[in-house]
Amino acid sequence: MIVILGSTGSIGLNTLAIASRFNIKIEALVAGDNISLLNEQISIYKPKYVGIKESDKKHLVNHTNIFCGEEEILDMLSKCESETIVNALVGYAGLMPTLHSIKLGKKVALANKESLVVAGHLIDISKITPIDSEHFGLWYLAQNKKFNKLYITASGGAFRDWDIEKIKDATLKDALNHPNWSMGSKITIDSATMTNKLFELLEAAWLFNTTNIDAVIEKKSIIHALVEFVDGSTTAHLAGVDMKLPIAFALLGDVKSELLKPVDLLKIGAIEFLPIETARYPIWQIKDEILAKPHLGVVINAANEEAIEKYKSGKCSFIGISKIVLDAYKKFDYLKPSNIEETIIINKEVRDYVNK
């Protein structure tokens, strides 16, 4: 029995597919704005509890046990008997459910990057199982072996092949045109700026207790992770672009049946690795600094979320997103939150600064 936070997004949909295949009961569903899809899920999976973001949409939900807003959803988690909480919420909104679930003694199957980015130093990593193709690949390869360095791969995002001079004029439609797949707007924009990969490095630093980690571009998104072992060998994890595999391992612990079609090596053709260049991805210039000071993830995340909203509303250019984040990073680089209360305060201060 599980709880799914973010049931109408791509991770939520894939989690429900795995739940159906392996007869896992759904105790609670939480969704954002897609009430019509949520109602379809309620009809199929018949959860005991339902949560939504906004109380003014409560009357649209076809359920009698509805929780609205953060505080009520946290209360709902306290009532749930499930041992596993799948947190696929987007952005900072996923942090408190992660912390509260761990406090309740739950296992968290985590797709919400921002939880570890914002407060990795405050989270019991032993309670976290990542739902992410890159981190799953690292875990699958490492298996408690001694390694020297970890690598994750990036697609390069919407502007990986653009002339750099033209990126300054990129529209929102351009930024959302990912070359490899369709995702939500925030993660697609984060992919284009490379902020998404910066976040994944921070996640990996907490999950694998190392700062010796880097990312490279692999355009075909066939290789998700690589591990360089102490003996000098490097092993890569290849799999199709499908989140069902890491989700299944997170929920079941092990998988004994085929979930994906094996990669056809003869159809792949050449695989090329490319560096992530700061001229195209300005945010990458702080990669080493942020790994050395991961507690500043709260600053990066808050500034990034506000900058994306500015971009989506036409108040800044695409390259303005990274400029805003880098400016906030320099402004607040002296801070080091030691508890969740301080983290919440810093989060607000950064957002206020960006919106001045």
UniProtKB/TrEMBL annotation:
Please state what the protein is called.
Answer: 1-deoxy-D-xylulose 5-phosphate reductoisomerase
Source organism (scientific name): Sulfurovum sp. enrichment culture clone C5
Residues annotated for NADPH binding in this entry = T8, G9, S10, I11, G32, N34, N112, E114, G184
Q: Membrane-spanning regions, if any?
A: none
Which PANTHER family has this protein been placed in? 1-DEOXY-D-XYLULOSE 5-PHOSPHATE REDUCTOISOMERASE, 1-DEOXY-D-XYLULOSE 5-PHOSPHATE REDUCTOISOMERASE, CHLOROPLASTIC
Could you tell me what reaction this enzyme catalyses? Answer: 2-C-methyl-D-erythritol 4-phosphate + NADP(+) = 1-deoxy-D-xylulose 5-phosphate + NADPH + H(+)
Q: Which cofactor does it need?
A: Mg(2+); Mn(2+)
Cross-referenced InterPro entries, in alphabetical order?
A: DXP_reductoisomerase (IPR003821), DXP_reductoisomerase_C (IPR013644), DXP_reductoisomerase_N (IPR013512), DXPR_C (IPR026877), DXPR_C_sf (IPR036169), NAD(P)-bd_dom_sf (IPR036291)
Pfam families per record: DXP_redisom_C, DXP_reductoisom, DXPR_C
Q: Which family does it belong to?
A: Belongs to the DXR family.
Q: Report which superkingdom the organism of origin falls in.
A: Bacteria
